[in-house]
Amino acid sequence: MNERSGERRNEAGNLSEGAGLDPELRERLGRSLKELSDVKFALDEASIVAATDRKGVIQYVNDKFCEISGYTREELLGQDHRIVNSGYHGKAFMRELWRTIASGRVWRGEIRNRAKDGRAYWVDTTIVPFVDGEGIPYQYLAIRHEVTRLKETEAQLQAMMAQLMQVQEEERRRISRDLHDGIGQSLFSLKIAIDRLLADGGHEHLRGLGSEVSRLMADVRGLAWELRPSVLDDLGVVPALRTYIEHYERHYGIRVRFDCDVRRRPDLLAETTLYRVVQEALTNVGKYAGVAEATVRVRDLGACIEAVVEDQGAGFRREEAGRGVGLFSMEERARAVSGELAVRSEPGRGTTVTLKVPVGERREGATGTDRAL
Amino acid sequence: MYDHETVEGVRKQLDLIRRALPCDFCALGLLEREGRTLKWPFVSGNGNERFAGIGESGSGGLSGTVMKVGRAATLRAEELAAARRLHEYPLLIAERLKSAYAVPLRSGGLVTGILLIGDRVLHVYREEERRLAEREGERLAQRLSGWRAESAEPQEPVW
Fold first, then answer.
1. Which partner for A51 in A60, A130, A347, B68 could form a disulfide, CB atoms 3.0-4.6 Å apart?
2. A contacts of B52 (beta carbons < 8 Å)
3. GAF domain: which residues (chain B) (predicted)?
C-alpha cells in the first residue's frame, strides 16, 4: 500500500509539473491525494494494517503490525500470514475465510495469532478484497484491532459462570441432604411418637396433629426433591428424568413421551448437565409452548449423549425471546462441559432443543459427594 | 364419585358465575382424596383440555398459599412471572390467564377447595366482584360439602 500510494504521489508530482493541465483540476487532484494520505495516516495510527497480493504474500505492514507481532518489516514482507499463525483455528476456518475474500466479499472475525516470542494475541479482523474490473481480487487489505484483553476476560467470565453453577449445584445438594436427613428424620420421629401416643390411648386431637406432621414431611420431601433429587446422585440421570417427567406431567397437565436408550451412567457433571438442561427446556415448554404434548429423547451416541426436547407449539424468534435466562443458562451449562446446545424454533412451528454432552466412563467406587462436580 | 346431579349443578353454577361477573374463565379446584393434590374437576370457559391433567401440590402455588392460609388472593401473571413463580400456577399458564382471583372453599373448618375466576386480559377485580366470588364460593362449598375430587392413583413420594 505504501508503495502504491507512493507511486501515486509521484504521478501527482509529475502531473503538477506537467504542462497544459487545468490549474483547477490540478488543485482538486492535489486535494484528493492529500485527503487519501491523511486517511491512510489515520488508519495506520488506529489499526494494525497489512496488505497482501492475491496469493496472500505480505506486501505492506504498518508499524503497529510489527509492534504486536514482534517481527521487523523485513522479516514480514514477502512472507504470508502463516508467520503469525497460532494453529488455533482449524483448516475449515481458514478455508471459509479464503473462500469469502477470494469471491470478493469482506471477511470479519476474531483470529488468534502468535508473535515472534511465542505470545498469543487476539485480533478483531476485517479483510477487504480490492477487485479489478472483472471482480477478481488483486490485493487484500487486512485491518485489525487487538482484543486479547477482551478475549481473556470473556474466558474468565465463562470459567466463573461454570464455577458458579458448580457451587450452586453443590449447595443445592447439601441443603437437599440436610432437609432430607435432618428435618425430614426429626419429623419422622415426631410422627412415630404421635402414633405411639395414639396407640397408648392418647387424646383424639393427636390424630389431627399426626396428619399435620405427615403433610409437613411431604412438604419437606418435595422441597428437597425440587432443589436436587437424590435419585440423580444415587441412581443416575435416567431414573431422575423419569421421575421429573412424571411430576412435570401432573403439574402442567402436559403429556411427555420419554424415549431413552442410555444404559450406562456417565460422569456426574454430564448427568447434572443433562438433567438441568432437560428440566429447563421442559419448563419453557410448560410456560410458553401452549401444547398438551412434548417429547424427550435421550440417546447414547458412544462418545457423547444426546438429549432432545421437542414440542409442536408456539415457538419463538430468537431475537424476540430476549436474553431469556433459560436459554442463556442452558448454553452456559453445555459450554461448561464442552458440550453443544442447539435451539431451533420458529413462530407457530414448535421448538427443538438439542444438547450433546461428551461423556467419560464413570469412575468405579465414586459416590455422590466425594466426586468433584 | 360425584352423582350426575351434583356435576351438572356445579357446571351450571360456574357458567352462571362466569356470565354474572363477567369473567373469561371459572374453575373449581378440590383436594383429591388423600388430601395432598389440588385438582380441577370443574371448569367453565376453558380454552383447552389441559386443566384435566393438572394437579398442584407442594409448598408453592395455590396449594401452598390460598389452600394453606385459607385466605382469598389476587393473582397477576405478570407479577408472578417477574417473581419467577408463574410455573407454580399451571392453570394460569394453560388457560393463558393474565389476572385471577382465588377464593378458598371451607367445609367444617377445613379448606377443601378453591373457586378461581380469571381473565385473559389484565383485569383489576373490584370489591363487588370479589364479594360475588366469595359468596358463590360459599354456596359451592355447601353444595359440595363432603365431596372430594376424584383422585388419580396415589403416588409414592419420591426421594
1. A60
2. 253
3. 5-154
